[in-house]
Known about the structure:
Elements: H1 7-15, E1 29-33, H2 34-38, E2 54-60, E3 63-67, E4 70-74, E5 77-82, E6 88-92, E7 98-104, H3 106-109, E8 128-131, H4 133-150, H5 157-175, H6 189-202, H7 219-226, H8 230-241, H9 245-263, H10 268-274, H11 280-291, H12 295-299
Antiparallel strand pairs: 1-7, 2-5, 2-7, 3-4, 3-6, 5-8
Helix pairs in contact: 4-5, 6-8, 9-11
Amino acid sequence: MDKTVSLEAFYREKIGILPSEIFRKTGHFNVFKMEDYLGPKSAYPMPYSRKDYYKIALIQGAHLVEYADHTYEVKHNMLMFANPLIPYKWTPENLQPTGAFCVFTEDYMKGFGHIKDYPLYQPGGTPILDITDEEANGVMGLFNRMFREIASEYTYKYDLLRSQVFELIHTGLKLRPAHTKIDVPGFSAGQRIASLFNELLDRQFPIESTVQKIQLKTPAEFADQLNVHINHLNRVLKETTGKTTTQLIAGRVASEARALLKHTDWNISEIAWCLGFEDTSNFVKFFKKQSETTPHRFRS
């Protein structure tokens, strides 16, 4: 699997310059037209990699997208909400795609909302939307407002652009309400525990090296880390997600296993060890139960 692509590397490799804005204490934001950014020297498919920044992209036309261990076929236009936790790549049907995208750091949004709480950025969410031409035109209108704003001399333009990022997120949520669940602002105690559990679970992924190993593997270990009784954790997660602690851990580990089998040449025992299995045979049994096939068959 390719190493994490930093925001600095993105600018040096793709743009050729490193804007001073990237070092702003308030975080970084920028917006690009797809055709200006890609240019005639674009290479496809895009490398499968994880980024250290958030990205919202509108790419007009059909696409094939690999996101974590899933593959999405976009037949019309793609609206994608990428986050630093999940590696991805996309291949357009047209090698000169049009559209726009913005990139921003978590620091840029800090203090103005919990971006990771939105369903589009949560595990199991729907970060890839296949939208109609009419919907794409509406989203492009939002990006055009961003282009006008970032080119202006308005002193507080980055505050206004931040609100436009949220507008893009809410537009995505409203475009596909059937795939998202929006909670009323203000977490209950149970929702807070569930959110912290998900954060602890997600923080262990993705695995990017054969020397990297997950540290929290069992419900008891998560309960100890959260300083709650294991029975209480199980009850809270069942009430908020409909799944047990064991099911949630197993689902995330299985998802990472499929991604590693698909996108690395590591042997099965190396993947098993990274995912907390000392015995490879136990990993094979686990994977077969979760995916209804063996690791070798899945890879082939």
